[in-house]
Amino acid sequence: MISFSCKSRLKEDSKIDKLVQQMTLEEKIGQMNQVMNFIDTMPIDPYFYNLIQEGKIGSVLNAYSPEMIKEMQRIAVEESRLGIPLLVGRDVIHGYRTIFPVNIGLAATFNTELVKEIAKIAAIEARSEGVNWTFAPMMDISRDPRWGRMVESCGEDPYVAEQMAIASIRGFQGKNGFNSNSIAATAKHYVGYGAAIGGRDYNTTLIPEAELRNVYLRPFKAAVNENVATVMAGFNELNGVPTSGNIHTIRDILKNEWGFKGFVVSDWASIKNLEVHAYAKDSSDATIKALQAGVDMDMCSLYYLDKIKELVLKGSLSEELIDDAVRRILKIKFELGLFENPYANKDNKLITEQALDIAKKAVIQSTVLLQNKNKILPLSKDINKVAVIGPLADAPYEQMGTWVFDGKSENTVTPLKALREYLGNKKINYAPGLKISRTRDKKAFADAIKAAKNSDVVLLFMGDESILTGEAHCRAKLTLPGYQNELITEISKLGKPTVLVIMSGIIHMIEPYLEQVDALLYGWHPGTMGGPGYVDLLFGLESPSGKLPMTFPRTEGQIPIYYNHNNTGHPASDESWVRMYDIPLKAWQTSLGNTNHYLDYGFEPLFEFGFGLSYTEFNYSDIKLSKETISLDDSLIITARIKNIGGFKAEDVAQLYIRDLVGDIVRPVKELKGFQRISLNPGEEKIVEFILYPKDLEFHNGKKWLIEPGDFHVWIGNSSKATLMSKFELK
Ligand code: BGC
After folding, report:
1. Burial level of 180, CB count in 10 A (0-12/13-18/19+)?
2. Residue 217 forms part of a structural domain
3. Is residue 684 part of a domain?
4. What integer pLDDT is reported at residue 437 of this predicted model?
5. Which of 448, 437, 447, 432 is closest to 482 using CA atoms?
6. Domain assignment of residue 65, yes or no
7. Nearest CA residue ID for atom 2, ligand 1
8. pLDDT for 363-376, tens place per residue?
């Protein structure tokens, strides 16, 4: 018999105790079972009905309609023996009915207040239809744009992921406990899922302990500190052990070391997958491994429902372990107030004016201006004719992005619609050129070229359909699909002022387009209010202020490339980069210097992390530190002056970076430690202030956490290439 002592028992709670005492083993197991009803019509099909009635389901996910949710909840509450309400889970990922920009876009806002507001609106809307639990926020670090799920992430930086995770959890759950407008959040996917080798979804991950702690676990730790209700174990295998059966990460770190008090749900059938990974020999083995690792609820494998009873009776699983899981699940149900009010909050409204305003603000703040030759943007409203071209110009469904179950095309405002409203239909020459992003014929090119010729400015809305991004939708080639490249090339030959807006959830290799167009806005999949948000930016009602949350490589072969890498013993520089075409024949192997670069593509990305242009310019100066030396119980105030030296009122994201010069293990060349949005009128200046604590300098060396004395560099600026630098010492 494998005995397992569960050290993470919750504080005794009388309501939970009372209920658990009344529960049969079958009813306890039922609470640990989460399923989806695949029959999408009402009435509820008899098989599913009976399961709920018999108390064999603790949670349902992704139900088809509010009516179905209501009926399922009614059966649980009114017809099951103990009347325990259901947790109604759903992927409310970047909005419920009001759809906000995809998460990588939200990260590009570098605006945690906004992200909190968005999660709050999503919670209110979800609860209005009976959903009480979302599988968000996703906080996987992603350094690889081939990985289709980068769209759901906050990009490459653990600090950004951590801050955005905290903001989302506060928005979904509320800061001081749940109320009838909040929903339970899920920190996912625990852990390391974004490190999939080759950026191919579900792939193996290999992450050394120090890297795991310093990068991948950080946002999860922050989520636990923020009282996130649930954590979702991932699909990936981590260093040989699948994360849904991983004692080290779930039992030891999450539950014992961090004291997580919520519950762990598996990912979809990830307990069953333990067999596919060949980590478990059969369903019993998978059940034992998942449960012992600390997975409390089984999403859709049905293994817990089928196997636990037999395993407990045989003595292969202790009932103590089951009780712990059930208590954790019931705790969240009690905290959510489901025993008093299990149903939808009917006072809540969908798509309010306020929600739409926030959605538009999010489009404005997430869109990143990457090029603006000759200050072609912003455009004047007095313009005569505008050509609107591209497969994303009028694709309401597609611009909502991945993971949209509840958003509606009819609520979505496309760029074309918004431009027609703003400029009047007469000024618009619309010709998409390509039916969809993947169209591979040139039949409609002639119309697009004609429209462009007859216009003063060309607006190209290119990108991807939503299905080309997200789970299991990874790409090895990251140029725009279909004949979009060809269309851009044809249009660029006309020599008209041309603006390219890319609408996608992933990063494309855009270097060739920079030559072909005047301005380039990276607009992500912007959601419901994409059109109006873009119009405000294109016509200068607002200035772009989004910043890249992920490094933009020049070509796929540079992947992975990220700003917070370690130094090699042979760091590259512009001088040391040997250009392939400059190498003389028969040059001696080392005569040209050996540094860490590609002969053809060098070592720099196309655009660095944190980068994004504005319609104005900002000057950063006067970096000052409150002290040159700090001790362990001290803090350090770092300030800099930011001045708007252009002619446009705008916001910028001031960023604080540090470098730990020498470490017990090699430390990254730069690490983000703070960011702030600052709004400045033309000519105005402000002092931006950041505080650093010794705790912020802590890192894990693979065995333990260290705060090491030594020298540090510190920068303030508006990208990871910030040059305004100072130094301090930690004593
Ligand atoms: C995804 C999760 C999602 C779950 C439920 C899985 O395939 O990996 O992120 O929450 O399905 O829909």
Report:
1. middle
2. no
3. yes
4. 98
5. 437
6. no
7. 267
8. 999 999 999 999 99
Whether the pLDDT of residue 455 is over 50: the answer is: yes
In 3D, which of 268, 198, 207 has the Cα closest to residue 237?
207
Give the Å distances, CA to CA, from 478 to 23, 319, 468, 556, 562.
Answer: 54, 51, 11, 7, 17
Atom number in ligand 1 closest to CA 152: 9
Helix, strand, or coil here: 463? strand
In the 8-state DSSP scheme, what is residue 556? G
| Cα 107 from Cα 366, distance rounded (Å) | 7
Give yes or no for residue 293 having a pLDDT over 50.
yes
141 C-alpha to ligand 1 centroid (Å): 17
Percentage of the chain exceeding pLDDT 90: 95
SS3 of residue 134 by DSSP: strand
| Residue pLDDT, tens place only, 71-90 | 999 999 999 999 999 999 99
Tell the residue nearest (CA) to atom 6 of ligand 1.
268
CATH of the domain at 644: 2.60.40.10
Render pLDDT for 544-562 as a digit per residue (tens, 0 to 9).
999 999 999 999 999 999 9
Is pLDDT at 354 greater than 60 in this prediction?
yes
- The residue type of 726 is S
Pocket test for ligand 1, best of 35, 88, 268 (most atoms within 8 A of CB): 268
* Amino acid (one-letter) located at 204: T
CB atoms within 10 A of CB 211: 18
Which residue's CA lies nearest to atom 7 of ligand 1? 268
- Number of domains present in the structure of the chain: 1
pLDDT in tens, 397-417: 999 999 999 999 999 999 999
Tell me the average pLDDT of the chain: 96
pLDDT tens-digit series, residues 199-252: 999 999 999 999 999 999 999 999 999 999 999 999 999 999 999 999 999 999
Choose the catalytic residue: 91, 157, 267, 285.
Answer: 267
Helices (H), 139-198: 158-173
Q: In this structure, is the dihedral angle defined by the CA atoms of residues 123, 125, 127 and 130, taken in order, positive or negative?
A: negative
Residue 593: the pLDDT is 76
CB 509 within 8 A of CB 384: no
Which atom of ligand 1 is least distant from the CA of 188?
Answer: 9
Ligand 1 binding site (Cβ under 6 Å of any ligand atom): 61-62, 91, 135, 188, 267-268, 471
Nearest to 247 by CA among 493, 73, 5: 5
Residue 605 lies in a domain: no
Distance in Å, CA 365 to ligand 1 centroid: 28
Active-site annotation holds for 406: no
For residue 244, the CA-to-ligand 1 centroid distance in Å is 13
Residue pair 244/293 in contact by the 8 Å Cβ criterion: yes
Distance from residue 99's CA to the centre of ligand 1 (Å): 18
Closest C-alpha residue for ligand 1 atom 12: 91
Domain limits at 706? 618-730
Write out pLDDT tens, residues 577-622: 888 999 999 988 876 778 999 999 999 999 999 999 999 999 999 9
Euclidean distance between CA atoms 288 and 672, whole angstroms: 41
DSSP bridge partners of 187: 231
Q: How far apart are alpha carbons 222 and 326 in whole angstroms?
A: 24
Measure 163 CA to ligand 1 centroid, in angstroms. Answer: 22
